[in-house]
Amino acid sequence: MTATLLKEASPPPVGMADRRRRARRRGRIIAIAFVFPALLMLGALVVYPVLFSVGRSFFDASGTRFVGGHNYSAMFHDPATIKAIRNTTIWVVVAPALLTALGLILAVLVEKVRWATAFKLLLFMPMAVSFLAAGIIFRLAYDEDPDKGVLNAAVVSVHDAFKGTSSYPTARARDGQGLTKGADGSYRTTAAASPGHAVDLGLVGVLADDLPGDARPAYPAAARKAAPDELRGVVYLDFTRGGGGEQGKVDRQESGLPGIEVEAVRDGRTVASATTAADGSFRFGGLDSGSYALRLPASNFAPPYDGISWLGPALVTPAIIGAYLWIWTGFAMVLIGAGLASLPRDALEAARMDGANEWQVFRRITVPLLGPVLTVVFVTLVINVMKVFDLVYIIAPGPVQEDATVLATQMWLVSFGGGNDQGLGSALGVLLLLLVIPAMVFNVRRFRGSQR
């Protein structure tokens, strides 16, 4: 009787299905407990700002008056925003394509280099540099002053090596001293000269310390007489250090100006040319009798070549894209190199055995097999360039900031950089989000497809 009552009072045995259900429920609770902090942070740092920006984009600059879609309409009527959209389009079209192509070429070439690991490390190192530091580096590299900017220093060196440079860019003639300046910057004698005469051409505006090291006094050359069949003279610095001397006359302390080109002109045509010696002297021999004018070409006084205005309105966007390529080329190379390492080598070797050269193997086999990897790299870079901000804001100088602006910088400038219109800035942020979402969705689908 007692055993029967105890049996009826005891709980029914728990089945295996119930145990599994309870274990799953307990696992879900534990998983939610671990994920909840991350979800909380995601909501606070991503979801809430997105929803707040969407809502804020429908209000005016003060945030108190509802304006509907006015900010979105004004956004496309603002010339600065239109320029930002144009520059963003240039970034999206040019930068990812160049980076993917460079990454592919370098990944293929690195396979044939003995020190491949060191080469990859060298190219990947810029990724360890912050965009702020990279922007400062390239702001200095692009400096227009050749004494500061390394790129212009190289450009000026190459230019001067092939075309040379003027030694007297600041030289000029005194008024009323027998030389008149032409529209092209050259100087011409006002009085005619003929063979058997000597002409002294005085210039000023050259500091004594800037004279060439081989310059010699001009007085001995000026004192020499011209032969009957020659026209000679001297080009000198018409200035005596310490004062004194007579204008328009070669004094004993005055220096000749070597390396100046002098032309003899008759009937508007150059019939002879000479270059001044260390004492500034020049001579024309074998001239026909008659009158000649002497001309100092404008090339003698051309200002020095200062290089390229890398950060000017025309080149500022390509210059910043160049800095971006320096940073991200290693990233593209490493990802494409990982895909290249996983390619079936038997297909490549079979093509080579069938007589295909390296270019055919690369174009017809390597590139098609790397298609999925190249697509992922390209789309990832598209997402990245749409959000580029640091490099544009740091590298572009203030006067050309508007010429280089992209959507991210325009959003910041409108909201916080002086515009103080967070309604319009929020609309720009929403536009940027809408442009990025399709690329993100495409990339996620590609990742899921590759996992399957």
UniProtKB/TrEMBL annotation:
<dbReference type="Pfam" id="PF00528">
    <property type="entry name" value="BPD_transp_1"/>
</dbReference>
<dbReference type="InterPro" id="IPR035906">
    <property type="entry name" value="MetI-like_sf"/>
</dbReference>
<keyword id="KW-0813">Transport</keyword>
<keyword id="KW-0812">Transmembrane</keyword>
<dbReference type="InterPro" id="IPR050809">
    <property type="entry name" value="UgpAE/MalFG_permease"/>
</dbReference>
<protein>
    <submittedName>
        <fullName>Sugar ABC transporter permease</fullName>
    </submittedName>
</protein>
<keyword id="KW-1133">Transmembrane helix</keyword>
<feature type="transmembrane region" description="Helical">
    <location>
        <begin position="423"/>
        <end position="444"/>
    </location>
</feature>
<keyword id="KW-1003">Cell membrane</keyword>
<keyword id="KW-0472">Membrane</keyword>
<feature type="transmembrane region" description="Helical">
    <location>
        <begin position="29"/>
        <end position="51"/>
    </location>
</feature>
<feature type="transmembrane region" description="Helical">
    <location>
        <begin position="121"/>
        <end position="142"/>
    </location>
</feature>
<feature type="domain" description="ABC transmembrane type-1">
    <location>
        <begin position="85"/>
        <end position="443"/>
    </location>
</feature>
<feature type="transmembrane region" description="Helical">
    <location>
        <begin position="89"/>
        <end position="109"/>
    </location>
</feature>
<feature type="transmembrane region" description="Helical">
    <location>
        <begin position="365"/>
        <end position="383"/>
    </location>
</feature>
<dbReference type="InterPro" id="IPR000515">
    <property type="entry name" value="MetI-like"/>
</dbReference>
<comment type="similarity">
    <text>Belongs to the binding-protein-dependent transport system permease family.</text>
</comment>
<feature type="transmembrane region" description="Helical">
    <location>
        <begin position="323"/>
        <end position="344"/>
    </location>
</feature>
